[in-house]
Description:
By secondary structure, this protein is α+β, with helices and mostly antiparallel strands.
Amino acid sequence: MQSSIFGQHLRQVVLGQLKQSNVHSISHGLYSTGMKHLGGTRQSALGGARKVATMPVLNRMVVRAAAAPVEEKTRNAEDVSGNDDLRNIAIIAHVDHGKTTLVDSMLKQSKVFRENQAVETRIMDSNDLERERGITILSKNTAIRYKGKKINIIDTPGHADFGGEVERVLNMADGVLLLVDSVEGPMPQTRFVLRKALSLDKKVVVVVNKIDRPAARPDYVIDAVFDLFCELDATDEQCDFPVVYASGMSGIAGNEPDQLSDDLEPLFEAILREVNPPNVDKNGPTRMQVCALDYDEHKGRIAIGRVDRGSIKKGDNVALCLPDEEPRKGKVTELFVYDNFTRVPADEVHAGDICCLTGISDVSIGDTLCDPSVQEPLPTIAVEEPTVTMTFAVNTSPFAGQEGKFVTSRNLKERLERELERNLALKVAPGEGAESFEVSGRGSLHLGILMENMRREGYEFSVGPPKVITKKSDDGTLLEPFEEAVIEVPEEHVGAVTSLMGSRKAQMLDMSGGSEGLTRVKYTLPTRGLLGLRNAMLTATKGTAILNTLLVGYEPWVGDIDTRENGSLVCFETGQVTAYAIESSQQRGRMFVSPGAQVYEGQVVGIHQRAGDLKVNVCKKKALTNMRAAGKDNTVVLSEPIPVTLDYALEYVADDELVEITPENIRMRKNPAMKKRK
């Protein structure tokens, strides 16, 4: 009897026949629970997964109803600080779904800049590498004012290799904006960041971004996001997510895809309405956990975090605590808060607000700053384990020491130790020799960004090929990391992708129509199979494939995987490359070097067209004899060499090769410590 009454009431709501004026929103969880009361799952109640045309419509009715304004719940004054003028949000999404661009529009519309001020695009991407690559690498903080309320904003990276940045900064936020592309929908990194936010019980506001794209399909995206929440075992309350439709590039937003405002006011209103103020104790003893570090030449190390309890004042003595460790002493010399895109000096920061402080030279991420009389450290920040390791070593090539400023093992060790202080997802261990170090990270890109920063700082070193980190199960079975790969590719290249993935022992999970005429193929494969995959896939699909990956866990070892079919062309002697020698050498394969370049014996100068390595002499000069008449030589036609970037070199090198990294050049060479390939 009770189930039938509940089902009748639910049907009235879904069909829009509920006439009570005090009902403003419907929970997704209530909807799914109600369907189970009616005798079936969500899919069966709607006629099967996506087989009934009314299913997306019903979902949209429920979701959009959740975006309508609701009455503010009364809060117990004893549980919160009473600071209703503060919100802390993190913006999370898959790579290239528009996080940083949306922050640009939020800053501009909150009147942070003068009307005549020249402002660059992607303001938050202040790092040179971020601007060059068009991606966010480091999490950054800023703050804006809206209707007298302060909103602290944390911009996070979207690439899976920088997931550690997302994990550590979510502790500072009370809610998150989950951006989803209006065409692509949820992608692998969307799942990763959403899982982290749900596990920390953060309020999620879904923002369907790029709504003004011609191929936008918001109905499909909302339905896919809801399915993702269900797959991640979200609670009924978490499934009741509000939705805002926006275009970060145009600076517009609305509660309906076809009813957009001229600005981002609906988004600001949703943040104030849906994200609760910080739930903190403002009268207790001081406590703050350091979630990020910055550095200033004059101020030294800068600790960044959210005040969890009490308040911090300029000149306070604090205790730096970690669980199960002796506390250290420190003193706050300067204090800053974020306000209108700048750091503003402050004398006191209260609980709930995000601040920066200086004066503590040995502070590290994860440290808890406590009142010396009440030392209660918070749990350390945990991030997922690295999956790929590489060997960093002193450069021992014939050209060693000619271009770098920092070339010794001591320089290398000091630089890696400094990186450990701010990069939680990184691990460093001693290598086989005294001049090498095993550096582990989330992926080749994660470690590649570190290498690029080091070479720009004047470091010269060599690295080995990336290798996966294996584990052993309780019964002794060897386990290796597996990843989910989502590939979007034009239909005419699906066969090439299928063949390439099959050779790397990938298993197809799904194939469906993707965005804008592309086919989306989903695979699971060993992380080893991804090494060198990106370049091979771009070649096979003529540069049209889009590859995204996400670590899914550890599975039993699947055996050997041949990630490179071709051998290398290896330089025969040290000298200068000549056009005469290149003309004959390029018949053996594709070249990496051009005439005039300096090379040495053992350097990899090209790709052999067959398996196995081949030694070539690219320094051979034409004999100057009187046997040839002047002007009778054939015209030399040379092919364009392949540009060797750091990313390309890391994907190309085999087990018996090294990448030589200097401030001016990226070279590849055979590893003299290993046997030559036959």
